[in-house]
Amino acid sequence: RMAASGGSCPAAMKATSQGAFQKENPLDFALPLIILQICLVVVVTRGLAYLLRPLRQPRVIAEII
After folding, report:
1. CB 62 within 8 A of CB 49
2. CB distance 17 to 24 below 8 Å
3. Which InterPro entries match (predicted)?
4. What are phi and psi of 42, to 5 degrees?
């Protein structure tokens, strides 16, 4: 009985925003946030792959880390 105990589901995120020029924070919306997260994962993976290159490790090792 979650309703009786005060627990509830968080409100769903909107997918897109009207843009930063409309005084909205784009990271409060699902689509811009997931794009930022994907880009961050790609950049960190590529950086690790570059650092592991002298150790002759393939890129997949950086992706696993």
Report:
1. yes
2. yes
3. CPA2_transporter
4. -65, -45
Question: Average pLDDT in the 39-59 region?
Answer: 89
State pTM to two decimals: 0.64
Q: Write the CA distances from 31 to 11, 34, 35, 38, 41, integer angstroms.
A: 16, 5, 6, 11, 16
Number of domains in the chain: 1
Domain extent at residue 45: 26-53
Is residue 58 included in any domain, yes or no? no
Task: Tell me if 61 sits within 8 A of 52, measured CB to CB.
Answer: yes
